[in-house]
Amino acid sequence: MENARPADPRRRWSVDALIGFWQKPDASRARGALTEDIVGHWPRPIGLVRGVSPYVEVIATMMRLCPDFSLRVPEYATSGNFAFIRWIATGTGPDGPFEFTGCDRVQTRDGRVCENYVFCDDPFFSQVAAQLASSRR
Q: Which of 14, 26, 44, 86 is the least crowded, having the fewest Cβ atoms under 10 Å away?
């Protein structure tokens, strides 16, 4: 598996790196791009997630639920330590093929993501939340 190796922790996060990650996502590679104290604001009902392990758990759950999940990024803007990214997600979930859009606001510190707001109201995130709850029981 070419994408099974962890990300280089010295490598700085960028929108291009995010695009590359979501072309062939592997949750284990996300760790190197995140600060240990990352705060993720995921769509409800996932909600607030603090810390690198819980954050990566959300991504891993997304991948278990939809192994062919991918993102395209038609546009983005950056300003200092912030990036605003409009994305289009595609994949095949429990209810069949899907496509939906969303937007992230990413903040970095020392080249790694320290906070991320994910704005999207697609029901896919409710399915992710249900899987997370089920795996924690």
A: 44
